[in-house]
Amino acid sequence: MKVFISRQIPNLGLKLLENAGIEYDLYPSDYAIPRTDFIASLKSNNYHAIISTLSDKIDAELLDIAGKQVKIVANFAVGYANIDIDECSKRGIAVSNTPDVLSAATADMAFTLLLATARRLIEGHELIQNDAWQGWTPTQLLGQDLKQKTLGIIGMGRIGEEMAKRALGFNMKVVYHNRKPKPQTEAELKVKYLNLNELLSESDFVSLHCPLSPATKHLIGKKEFELMKNTAIIINTARGAVINEQELVAALKQGQIWAAGLDVFEFEPKITEELKHIPNVVLAPHLGSATQGTRDAMIELAVESIIAVLSNKTTANILNKEVF
Ligand code: DGY
Fold first, then answer.
1. Which residues pair with 174 in a beta bridge?
2. Does residue 57 carry a pLDDT above 90?
3. Ligand 1 atom 4: the closest Cα is on which residue?
4. Under a CB-based contact definition with an 8 Å cutoff, are residues 41 and 62 in contact?
5. Above 90 in pLDDT, residue 324?
6. Distance from the CA of 159 to the center of ligand 1, in angstroms?
7. Which spans in 132-195 are helix H?
8. Are residues 60 and 83 in the same domain?
9. Which pTM does this prediction carry?
10. 186 annotated active-site
């Protein structure tokens, strides 16, 4: 059995494959494999499994080239908007992702962005770096309090729940919007369900934790920014295209919202130029799950799924259970 790995992954993943007696070929780059190289690599029809990452488009064309022997595509990410699951299912190919293991790290990053924007940390850092700080003043870089403020969570999955717990620890109120209300989460965490418009107009902070899908693409655009408070801060650690980035720039420039903390971008890794020059925007290069422990746990889960599927077994993180 042989796996194609579309770019460098944590060493642990390679060790686990070797221990399981599974061969692999690895595209030798830290960055996304160009489509042409991906297609050329899969043409040999040599691979029974593919480890893909969030930027690899797994579609009908690629699957046809990869061949009928492919049994699983293991995405090294919890998000899987890059994979055409229906096309995989039609061919009997299982698709797995890496849920749970990155929820805490991603919520940590969302909360880091929330604090950094609320307290204008990067502006302060730059003031010092540029030798422009002349000392403490009563009115310098005044930010926003967290206590008793409302955090609106859009997408109350595992990462959304972790975010809610962090906010509650900071004495914030938490409201949420989700495809379906979650009464158990409401009882456990004391959070309140609101429709999207209510959430946007009531929240002081809005944090996105929903997957990207046709239904959530540009979920936040002109109309939604108009509903938000002028003092509101938006945080995105989900997928860039959930926000219409041009409209975000306009909302920030017009003072319709106060700040944005972004870990993901609509045209990643290309960043809408203006975002780099708006002072109350904190930008991170898609670091949500970027801790050694979390990335190791993610690759462990991906390899476990491959080992299971290649032994004709299923696992909890197979997204298209109908293939078994
Ligand atoms: C994911 O897993 O979907 C993140 O965006 C990358 O870790």
1. 151
2. yes
3. 77
4. no
5. no
6. 11
7. 158-169, 183-189
8. yes
9. 0.96
10. no
